[in-house]
Specification:
Blueprint: E1 2-7, H1 9-12, H2 21-28, E2 30-31, E3 37-42, H3 48-63, E4 69-74, H4 79-82, H5 86-102, E5 107-110, H6 120-137, E6 141-142, H7 145-148, H8 152-160, H9 174-193, E7 196-197
Parallel strand pairs: 1-3, 1-4, 4-5, 5-6
Antiparallel strand pairs: 2-7
Length: about 200
């Protein structure tokens, strides 16, 4: 089984002192039935427009043309400071998932978390746009924004973090990435991958 994860700094786990990020934690808590390669393809500060333009050439090369494949689309917060509108973000994500479906690659979408240093209302709208795309296509979607926007531990982690994106948004630390991983694991990951929870 081959899985590619496309996204921004959050996909790389930037700011996590353990170097795992949410992706590493999710994989560590999953027992796969077959040998599985989970490959992260992050680009710092990536918008959905940029992701739509580059994902196919990078992911298809790694996923191959046979066997069990999957694409995790991790939408970050970069669309907001870049001025990408919610309708445009929705179209960009739809283009990614529709093209992946045409190639026979199932998708799993993770929405943007409530990073500090960016308009939360715009992030909420971005998350809702992602949810709409997935609902219309029957794709699994992890709402990261809603559970964390008023979560004390998340914002304590934000306050303690020194990691920033190039546009000034605060990135989570160890606790924040652990919260994101928990949400992914409990919103369809095992059902989508066929993996069993570890422990």
């Amino acid at each position: 089984m081959r899985i590619c994860v496309i996204g921004d700094e959050l996909t790389a786990g930037t700011g996590d002192p353990r170097g795992l990020g949410w992706v590493g934690r999710v994989v560590a808590h999953s027992v796969f039935e077959e040998t599985t390669n989970v490959m992260t393809l992050p680009v710092p500060g990536e918008t959905t427009r940029d992701m739509s333009a580059r994902w196919e050439s990078e992911a298809v090369l790694r996923l191959g043309s046979s066997g069990t494949r999957g694409l995790v689309v991790a939408v970050g917060a970069a669309d907001v400071p870049a001025g990408v509108s919610s309708p445009r973000s929705r179209l960009n994500l739809a283009n990614i998932t529709d093209r992946a479906a045409a190639l026979g690659i199932p998708c799993f979408v993770v929405g943007p978390p409530p990073l500090a240093g960016v308009d939360q209302g715009a992030l909420r709208a971005l998350s809702a746009s992602c949810a709409q795309v997935c609902e219309r296509r029957g794709l699994p979607f992890v709402d990261v924004f809603t559970p964390l926007v008023a979560h004390d531990q998340w914002f304590e982690d934000m306050a303690a973090s020194r990691a920033r994106t190039e546009s000034g948004m605060t990135l989570p630390g160890q606790s924040g990435y652990a919260l994101m991983a928990w949400l992914v694991l409990h919103q369809g990951w095992h059902e989508w991958t066929g993996a069993e929870p570890r422990g």
